[in-house]
Amino acid sequence: MIRYLPLWGLAIACAACSKPPQPHEPPTPQARAETPWDSLEAQKKKAQDVQKTVDEQAKAQAKAIEAQTQ
User: Fold this and answer.
1) 3 Cβ partners below 8 Å, 6+ apart?
2) First vs last Cα of the chain: how many Å apart?
3) Other C-beta atoms within 10 Å of 21: how many?
4) What pLDDT was estimated at residue 57?
């Protein structure tokens, strides 16, 4: 039993000195490659923004007309 005491001491010392495992970092995002339909998506987004603006203006105009009729 006494023969194994230095081995146990060495094992405990090694375990105490070891660094804790480092958390894995997520992979860095890669640059987005342009696809053939990117221009179509941009046009669609622009059309949606224009439609939103037109809807807001129509709503504001309807409120103004309603305010005048009352």
Assistant:
1) none
2) 101
3) 6
4) 97
13-65: pLDDT as tens digits: 777 776 777 778 877 888 878 888 889 999 999 999 999 999 999 999 999 99
CA nearest to 56, candidates 46, 67, 44, 64: 64
User: Among all chains, which residue has been given the structure tokens 């409120």?
Assistant: 63
SS (H, E, C) the chain: CHHHHHHHHHHHHHHHHCCCCCCCCCCCCCCCCCCCCHHHHHHHHHHHHHHHHHHHHHHHHHHHHHHHHC
Degrees, nearest 5: CA angle 44-46-47 = 65
- Predicted pLDDT of residue 13: 78
